Amino acid sequence: MKKDSPWYLALWCVVGVAIGIVFVGVLTSVVHWAGTEKFCGEFCHSMDATYVAYQKGDHFRTASGATAGCSDCHLKNESNHFAGPIDYTALLIDKAIAGSKSLFGEIAGHLSTPEKQIEMRQEMAEAVHAQMMDRNWAACRGCHDVARMYDPKRPMLGEIHRHMGPEAKNVDCLACHPTAGHNYGYILKFDTAKK
Interhelix angle for 114-134 vs 48-56, to 10°? Predict the structure, then answer.
């Protein structure tokens, strides 16, 4: 086949599309796998203590049976079910930053054991809290639609949250829900008992 033939160009276009599809498929699979609780809690050793606290937190098993995963709360746009390529790119950048912090903590040694992770807990919690505040609790709002929040058994629930919609500023979900994502009470008791 001659290089200036239209069939030659068509063949390379088909090969390029096939390689692109495989690349996107592999990338999507890796991104999905790297956002699972199995990856965050068992594969990523810098999160050992955090994973145990997550399993004791309110979002691990909810009353409805749903589970909010690590990515739902900690990655930009994940709980909001990102709508387009820009949102997905922001999610990938957020994932890369979070992953590199954990990897650096593992390599540097300050997150290499559960005991060291517990020592770093306050610093890490403050950083995540600040990030959640900066994002105006978008991760929480991605799952919790306060405008539709109503429980006939507890009517005050909807009333309390009524003014906490996306337009509200200075809302702090963790002020009332400190164990929503992680409950470190069990770990701290266990750690204190070991000493």
Answer: 70
Burial of 135 (0-12, 13-18, 19+ CB in 10 A): middle
The binding site for heme comprises: 44, 47, 70, 73-74, 140, 143-144, 173, 176-177, 182
Do the Cβ atoms of 70 and 37 come closer than 8 Å? yes
The one-letter amino acid code at 71 reads: S
pTM: 0.74
Angstrom CA distances, 170 to 49, 96, 117, 120, 166, stand at: 30, 28, 29, 26, 11
Q: pLDDT per residue over 57-98, tens digit each?
A: 888 878 777 888 888 888 887 777 666 888 888 888 888 898
Q: By C-alpha distance, which of 45, 72, 44 is closest to 57? A: 72
Nearest by Cα to 144 from 175, 174, 165, 159: 165
Q: Which residues make up each annotated binding site?
A: 44, 47, 70, 73-74, 95, 140, 143-144, 173, 176-177, 182
Distance in angstroms (rounded) separating the CA atoms of residues 149 and 94 = 29
Binding residues for a menaquinol: 95
